[in-house]
Amino acid sequence: MDLRYTEEELAFREEVRAFIRDNLPREIRERMRLGYPPRKQDTITWQRILNARGWAAYSWPKEWGGPGWNSVQKMIFLEENLSAPAPEILSFNVTMLGPVLIQFGTEAQKRRFLPAAANLDEWWCQGFSEPGAGSDLASLKTRAVKEGDHYIVNGQKIWTSTAHNADWCFCLVRTNPQAAKKQEGISFLLIDMKTPGVEVRPIISIDGSHHLNEVFFTDVKVPVENLVGEENRGWSVAKFLLGNERTGIARLGKSKERVRFAKEVAREVRMNGKPLIEDRGFRTRVAQLEVDMKALEITQMRVVSAYDKAKDGRPDPLSSVLKIKGTELLQGTSELVMDVGGPQAMPAWTQELAALTNEPALLPEWSPQMAPAYLMLRAASIYGGTNEIQKNILNKAVLGL
Amino acid sequence: MDFDLTDDQRLLGESVARLLADEYAFDQRKKLLGVAPGWSEALWARYAELGLLGLPIPEEYGGFGGGAVDVMLLQQAFGRHLVLEPFLATVVLGATAIREAGDKALQEEFLPAIAAGECKLAFAHYERQSRYDITDVLTTATPRNGGWVLEGGKSVVLHGDCADKLVVSARTGGSREEAEGISLFLVEGEAEGLLRRGYALRDGTRAAELSLSGAAARLIGPKDQALPIVERVVQAGIAAMAGEVIGAMEAMQAMTLDYLKTRQQFGRPIGDNQALQHRAAEMLVAMEQGRSMAMLAAMSLSEADPAERARSISMAKVGVGQAGRFVSQNAVQLHGGIGMTDEYAVGHYFRRVMVIEHMFGDTAWHLDRLADQVQ
Question: Which intervals hold domain Acyl-CoA dehydrogenase/oxidase N-terminal (chain A) (predicted)?
Answer without folding.
Answer: 6-119
